[in-house]
């Protein structure tokens, strides 16, 4: 398969224009969408969309209970699915929760979410990756600037930009407790990064990403093109949808206010993974679902 988005192959970074649509359902069908035309316009232009108060207080309470129970039950567990902070034993992320936990499997199948991602991607979908991210007060570390698609393309073999990331806020997001930061419009440009990808890179990159991190000049250019950096804040229960190629990151959390979220990636069934474009070996199933991925579709 032709590599339309080469990365980590040259010794100089390059910015490549996007070759895929942002919304894969014909825009003439906006009246059939589960979200408004204004929301679709915003997502198409900026590469992300926040919907506040998507989940009720009771639903949020159940999810909060679920993530803390999962953290407690895996606190001493030695598993590749449990990622710990690079400088401590605190849990940073727990992967594959849509598959391993019955409650979060139900969340992944929430019809309200599926209606939106089905429309954005123009097809049925499956979960490419899921995880809970914990960023406790005082000690939660940063996530470096990156495009998810760059990693999924190079290390997993995701062919095209036809996936949507979903972050469900399970703590109130302030401007100061390490919230998600996004560069508006960055989804329209692919930053081809430098550096060769070693096998099992994920063992280090999930703690602190070093490869697939854009150079400063490219980030500065993207920010100037997009008119700055957006920081969606709001109460727990809000959701943020962002296109697979949207440049994003987050600062460390040195405040007393924790910031936790449930992160799920919906990929089109017409965009399933091929061999990694790095030429290396495939990452484990708990990071990049390949075999027997159940299709999630509208009822």
Which CATH architecture would you pick?
Answer: Sandwich
The largest sheet is: 7 strands, antiparallel
Would you give the CATH topology?
Answer: Jelly Rolls
Q: Give me the strand/helix succession.
A: EHEHEEHHHEEHEEEHHEEE
Fraction in beta strands: 15-25%
Which regions have little confidence, pLDDT < 50, spanning 5+ residues?
A: none
> Can you give the helix content as a percent range?
10-25%
> Would you state the CATH class?
Mainly Beta
Structural class: alpha+beta
Describe this protein's structure.
The protein is of the alpha+beta class and 299 residues long. It has one domain (14-271): q2cbj1_9rhob like domain (Jelly Rolls, Sandwich). The chain is 25% helix and 22% strand. The strands form three sheets. It has a seven-stranded antiparallel β-sheet. A hairpin with a 6-residue loop joins strand 3 and strand 4 (91-95).
